[in-house]
Known about the structure:
The chain has 942 residues and is of the alpha/beta class. It contains nine helices and 59 strands. The strands form eight sheets. It has a 31-stranded mixed beta sheet, with no helix packed on it. It has a seven-stranded parallel beta sheet with strand order 44-46-52-54-56-58-59, with no helix packed on it. The chain is extended and about 150 Å long. The model is unreliable at 57-65, 73-79, 709-732 and 871-877 (pLDDT under 50).
Amino acid sequence: MCVETEKQALLKLKEGFIHGMELLSSWNGDDCCKWKGVSCNNLTGHVTSLHLKFSNFTAVEDLNYLVDEMPEMEFFTRSTNLAGKIDSSICELQHLTFLDLSHNYLRGEIPECIGSLGQLKQLKLAWNDLNSLPYALSNLSNLEYLDLSKNDFVESDLDWLSHLSTLRYLDLSKNNLVAVIDWTSSISKIPFLSELHLDDCGLPQVNPESISHINSSTSLQILSLSRNHFDYSIMSWVLNVSKVLTILDLSHNELDGGIIKSFNTLCHLKKLYLGHNKLSDKLSDYLPELCSAKDLEVLNLDHNPFRNGSFPDFSLFSSLERLSLQSTSIVGPLSFAHLPCLKALDLSSNNLNGSLPVFEVTKFASLHFLDLSHNKLSGRLPYSIGQLSNLWFLSISSNELNGGISEQHVFNLSGLKIFDVSKNSLSFNLNPDWVPPFQLVALYATSCNLGPQFPKWLKQQRKLQVLQISNTYIMDSFPEWFGDISSSLLYINVSHNKLSGILPKSLSGVKTGLISTWDFSFNNLYGTLPPFPPKVFELFLSNNMFSGFESSFCETFPVSVTYLDLSSNALTGPLPNCWQNFQNLEVLNLANNSLSGGVPESFGNLRSILSMHLNNNNFSGDIPSLALCKGSLRFIDFGDNNLEGTLQTWLEFEHLIVLRLRGNKIQGSIPQSLCNMLSLKVLDLSSNNITGKIPQCIGLISAMSDMEFRGEIIFYRTSAPLIFHDSGIGFFEDEISLTWKGGNYEMGKILGYFIAIDISNNNLVGEIPESITSLVGLISLNLSRNNLTGFIPDNIGHLKNLESLDLSRNHLHGRMPTSFSNLNFLNYMNLSFNNLSGMIPLSTQLQSFLASSYAGNMLCGSPLQNQCLDVRPRVQNNKDQLLSFVFYLSPALGFCVGFWSVCGTLIVKSSWRRAYFQLFINIIDWMYVTVVVFIARMKRRF
């Protein structure tokens, strides 16, 4: 039995955990050696091993590493992991040799006393939220394995590592080591280190001069330094620290072309990862520099900007098992050298063209992974591909392939797990009674031809997790066996077909995985909504003909649903009032139906809701309180209904980005609280009964007033696994119908960048507030069909992003401000039927609009026929008025001052007056004598 003091220490350690107690439910009774995760010495009873890593999560390797086999897809949630702090009682387990607390949610510090565990050989604390490393770790003199990766450590000194003289394995990845200037020296002092991982640590660049004295290690074989923004200087340390490296990962850095010369001395390399760097020149120029070419097993050069070149000759790489050249600008036709050991090949996202080569079995006997997607390959699929019996991953999507896929193409692919032929012009010509030799995990066939009948061969597929067969020309009903094809369907997409009939009841019995997305949209399905599996998270049923909700909806509909899209169906009648059951619901779309009655009170209990669409229905009455939702709501579209009430209800949502209430019966004025909605980007209150004035504070809405502000793009990401690659799964966006540029437009992809105000067709009065010109991010402004008066704001030209402006059918008067000429992006404007007068300002935009944009005013100038007689510009603002006043006042003041300076003096001072008049008499006398003398002289001459 275990030692009593150690048992008590374990119980105290358990008390420090605040979640995941069910994982330690076995921690009771007298013998702690029988507790889950605890191992003891059989002779002494001392605890020697503590293994509290309970996660079943299997991390799926990135394609960069080209996994050997299809991994099991397992998932975990936070509730299945321990959380809390590591209590110092753990230090009483003095005989521990193995401690694993990784993949939990432990916070705070590692106890200082952990340095007293002198017998500890393996310490694993990865994937936690620990934030402090005690220097006492340097006392663990027997430690051989240390994994502290993926925590929140912020370190400035790693010198303590030099005391761990027996350390063989070290992983500090994904911690903050930005301030560790001399990290190379600290690492180099660990004498027997054989495996080192320092990925994504923000490590400083290496100074080559500081490492000249370091002797090369004879033990370090595995080195991973990815995602650190290293430049070429890192190679001076890599070449110095070890001459026997077998695995080197420098991917996701900033290495340029000069690095390749360094590899002519690393002759023991078996795996080399250089993806996502800045390697240029031709790919073929790099290969001769690899002195380990004959022994290299893995080569990853993907996502480098190599100069365009054809697929190089890899015949020297006779041991190569995995080759990834994704996104490396390879062009031309595809031809393969003899690579007898090749297991995995990724040439996706290049410019390969021509037809697919014949896959000779003698050349590709070992191939299990082949990705040629996103190229320009054309022609038919060769039959020889069906002879690659070891293939489990085949992707040829997004090419220009055509022709048919028959049994002969896949007859020997018994190990096939992932099959991706989507976005080609391929047709499945398979016998309905054919029994496939494989059990697929994922099928991607978007935009191929699987129809017109629902493919019967899928009935045999019992392990499907992903089924992506949208837009595949199926014109059939769902077979009853569809619900039986998988016990763990994670993602189903049969959208954009012509499936008809009702959904089979058997669907409700499918045992989906923890995360699942089902998309049946854009078909001809009808009937009431059937029960769905309880673990469906995202459900897309839009653009069908579903007519209503079953009476059992509240009891049978999956309460785990996070995204529910029932838009554009034939739903009628009132909504069920049980929405408080759906506490995970984030997006609800019921738009474009014929639903009626009031909005259910239970909507106010949707605490996680982000987006609600009830537009284009027949809802009536007041809106229930949504106060519990205001912390989460970002998007509200209740437009085109018969809803009543005032705006005060809606303007309490400080995080709201889109508010669309157009086409209802909303009354009252716009309250000042509108100005507190600082995140608002789209406001559409058009076609209601709103009265009063536009608030002066409207210019305070920061999301609209920052020229560079674009806020969060309004989209959500499905949580379904993509299984290694993106095949169009996973992104869907909110959409909204807005009046823009004189018409109605559906805003989807650009909605996150769209900033608009539409309060048209109401009963607003008063002037357009000058502060509205502070909303410089506005793209569309529509205040038409109101009773607005006064001038157009003089600073209207500040709205330089404006593309659409409609102020028509109001009572605005005065001249058009000259700042209109600053609206360089304006391509729609309507000022018609106001009382505007004067000249239309000159600009590249204003003269390009039709005359109808200015109709019903007293304007003149191009593009109108009537020319202006008075072209004097209108006094635009107070500053101009002041200048005009000073202009006229100055001469008047000058005249008065001059006149009274002279005349006033003459009136007051008599001596000046006599002298002034005497001067005039003398001048007259002089002029008289001069003229008389001149006339006499002329007479004498003639």
